[in-house]
Amino acid sequence: METTLNGSRRLLALCVALIGCCCCCSLAAAELQLPNASNIKDLNELGAHYLPAGYGPANVSLADLQRLLEQKCAKANAALPASEVNATKLSDDIQQAGGRLMECLNGLANITVVLDEVERARPLGDLDVVFEKYCLRLPQARQCLTDFNAVLLPCLTREERQHNAVMQRIIGKLLDFVCYKNGDQIALFIAEQGPECLEQHKDNVGRCLEKSFGHYMPSQLNISTVELPELVLGSRQCTELHDFENCVVRHLENCTNITPSNIVESMFRYVRKESNCQQVVDRVTRDHSEALTQRAGAAPSWAHSAGAAAATITLALGLAVM
Ligand SMILES: *[C@@H]1O[C@H](CO)[C@@H](O)[C@H](O)[C@H]1NC(C)=O
Ligand SMILES: *[C@@H]1O[C@H](CO)[C@@H](O)[C@H](O)[C@H]1NC(C)=O
Ligand SMILES: *[C@@H]1O[C@H](CO)[C@@H](O)[C@H](O)[C@H]1NC(C)=O
Ligand SMILES: *[C@@H]1O[C@H](CO)[C@@H](O)[C@H](O)[C@H]1NC(C)=O
Ligand SMILES: *[C@@H]1O[C@H](CO)[C@@H](O)[C@H](O)[C@H]1NC(C)=O
Ligand SMILES: *[C@@H]1O[C@H](CO)[C@@H](O)[C@H](O)[C@H]1NC(C)=O
Q1: 246 and 179, same structural domain?
Q2: What are 10-41's pLDDT values in tens digits?
Q3: Signal peptide location in the record (predicted)?
Q4: What is the pTM of this model?
């Protein structure tokens, strides 16, 4: 019972981590401001499991959050005359919208309740009934996210806004994936010991996360000096995401049941197709095989221009592909 519940939570954590990584740091940050909603507490505990020490909600105060957001809003609007921009107000708006978003989502699905229902339905083979119920609320959930995003937009740079459109589509696609045929995939994942599989490899998944995205999180976090990163999904992030995918899938393939690994892989593929990440990954794979046929020790051609960090990631990816 206990491991299953933890497993389901880990699944959610993985989704949250995935969404968090490729999407909205601001979104995640905004969620931190609701200390006593029990759902959030759960989610934070989940997140904390995959986060390096020092990144938990305990270390990030409301004042930090306000400052980070304000800084971001001011920076995004730096080109406008100062009299036309009130970064404090924009930041307040985002925090309020974050609160509304959480209320809205809580109203649609209380995670504690969902997990209890899953627990009860699982031995009876009734998982599809549970997921169908929640998947029917998907349009409302989309609306909550759209409303929140509208408030976020004024604090994004022009480039981030373009990426934001892609990220919106990705989140939409993730929701579609989870609710494909009213939750068939997720029900299958749970029925086929997906949560146990994740539980078994939680440390490996954590290491994959660290390996692919760890450089975004300095180990010596100083919240008073840190800035929110650019929220973009460029070729570098695509490569990192693919690296992460390979790493996770490779570990999950070791579980007795292959289905969870297949489902996770198709989820990643779904996301990749919906962004421009597929092109990047194709190019990296092609360059990698070209480099191999030339028997040259050199990194793929595009890596030269992309800098040392990208080259390192490409090599890591190359190793993962092999
Ligand atoms: C909710 O949070 C407030 C302040 O953050 C605190 O005073 C209160 O005790 C909390 N309530 C519960 C039920 O934890
Ligand atoms: C979720 O449901 C549980 C159990 O019914 C309840 O105690 C808790 O307050 C709910 N949380 C929220 C945020 O509504
Ligand atoms: C950050 O959190 C860790 C535990 O998660 C704690 O030991 C540390 O003192 C915290 N640091 C600050 C600056 O609050
Ligand atoms: C900016 O907005 C805040 C409210 O969010 C307000 O208190 C403050 O006076 C505004 N500043 C300016 C310069 O208008
Ligand atoms: C964090 O940065 C501030 C400002 O630079 C500095 O005063 C403070 O000592 C730093 N804290 C830590 C723990 O490094
Ligand atoms: C798979 O399991 C074998 C045997 O336990 C182990 O040696 C190997 O390292 C595992 N591979 C991964 C990717 O976890």
Answers
A1: no
A2: 333 333 333 333 333 333 333 332 232 333 34
A3: 1-30
A4: 0.64
